[in-house]
Amino acid sequence: MAQGPSSRDKNEPPSQGVAPRLKTASAAPTCAFFDEDGNPIRNAYVKLESTRSDGFFCESWGDTNDRGMVALPPIHMGSLKLKVKAKGYRPQELDVPASELGDPVRVTLKKK
Questions:
Q1: 3-state DSSP call for residue 40?
Q2: Are 17 and 26 in contact (CB under 8 A)?
Q3: pLDDT for 25-75, tens place per residue?
Q4: CA distances from residue 84 to 8, 24, 47, 63, 100 in whole angstroms, order as listed
Q5: Is the dihedral of CA 8, 17, 104, 31 positive or negative?
Q6: Which has the closest alpha carbon to 48: 80, 4, 16?
Q7: DSSP labels, 59-101
Q8: What's the distance, Cα to Cα, between the start and end of the chain in Å?
Q9: Rg of the chain over CA atoms, in angstroms?
Q10: Which of 31, 13, 7, 6 minimizes the C-alpha distance to 83?
């Protein structure tokens, strides 16, 4: 489940996320993925989809690094859905408020 903006852990790198200033602006989110024990999940495939009210669709994707993090390329803002798949874990889909993209979006994945 999405954990929302993180309270800063001194072991985590600073966020590279950029929240949008306007509803139609673009943003570059940072996401962090962990297992139920708090260990980072490496090589998870992450995709962020955005659908605006005018029908414009945009997506960005990437794989997590050794720290379980991925800085996704900029994406136009709309209704945001984050999808993640990782070997050995249940896939997840969740809605993400654009206003929370300035801090890393933290997600805990459950094992299959």
A1: strand
A2: no
A3: 566 789 999 999 999 999 999 999 999 888 889 999 999 999 999 998 888
A4: 23, 24, 6, 9, 18
A5: negative
A6: 80
A7: EEEEE--TTSEEEPPPEE-SEEEEEEE-TTB--EEEE--GGGT
A8: 15
A9: 13
A10: 31
Beta sheet of 57-63, edge-to-edge order: 57-63, 45-51, 79-85, 92-95
Tell me the β-bridge partners of 2. 107
User: Rounded mean pLDDT of 105-111?
Assistant: 95
Q: With a cut of 80, say whether residue 111 has pLDDT above it.
A: yes
* Two tokens, residue 111: 């094992």
**Secondary structure in 3-state letters for 3-21:** EEECCCCCCCCCCCCECCC
Tokens of 37: 């024990």
Domain 26-35+42-112 carries which CATH code?
Answer: 2.60.40.1120
Q: How many residues does the chain have?
A: 112
Half-sphere exposure of 12 (CA within 13 A, CB side): 23
Higher-pLDDT residue of 76, 49:
49
